[in-house]
Amino acid sequence: MVTVSTSKSYHHGDLRAALVAAGLEELKTTDISDISLRQLARQVGVSATAVYRHFPDKNALMQALAQAGIDQMAQWQRRAAKGAQESEAFAATGRAYVRWALANPALFRLAFGQCDQIGPSVFGDNEAARMLRSHAQHLTGSEAGAQRLMIQAWAVVHGLAMLMLDGQLPRDDALIDQIIDARTLFAA
């Protein structure tokens, strides 16, 4: 039986999901290096040994949090691109990438900078990567062209996100829209 100690505690169900949710919440206020499995166990009201059944070490937890972040970002991108024409949908997913990064800086840095790769390629095998690949293939019509466009687009949106997060550029929605504009993004 699982002991329930607070109103936020885990209640019979998916302990792994509860731990990931607690970790995501913790990333909003706690430095990545200060998050611990024992701390999350206390937050969800279970023993530390229960946590280790799902995450053998902190790295395994960080991988799960990074994947949850990528999934969350993909949701933002899907909503942003919904109903748009292909080139505008491509740009909309890029703007959503930057806005998600600004709204979730620690999770963004974890997912893209402090964790091992999420998938088997530089883009991984997740919804965000599949959207990027699909849009790039549609716009270029070739695998080689798609690969080039994927790298270019990712470099632009990731670079813009990092510049804004690091205070090198202002966190400005109008600037995001100006830089990630389907009509001008890769124009000569």
Automatic annotation (TrEMBL):
Q: Which residues bind DNA?
A: 36-55
The UniProt record lists the HTH tetR-type domain at: 13-73
- Domain of life, per UniProt, equals Bacteria
Entry keyword annotation includes Oxidoreductase: no
UniProt keyword terms in alphabetical order: DNA-binding, Transcription, Transcription regulation
**Coiled-coil ranges from the UniProt annotation:** none
List the SUPFAM superfamilies hit by this protein, alphabetically.
Homeodomain-like (SSF46689), Tetracyclin repressor-like, C-terminal domain (SSF48498)
What the entry lists under PANTHER family is as follows: HTH-TYPE TRANSCRIPTIONAL REGULATOR RUTR (PTHR30055), TETR-FAMILY REGULATORY PROTEIN (PTHR30055:SF220)
- What this protein is called in its record is TetR/AcrR family transcriptional regulator
Source organism = Novosphingobium aquiterrae
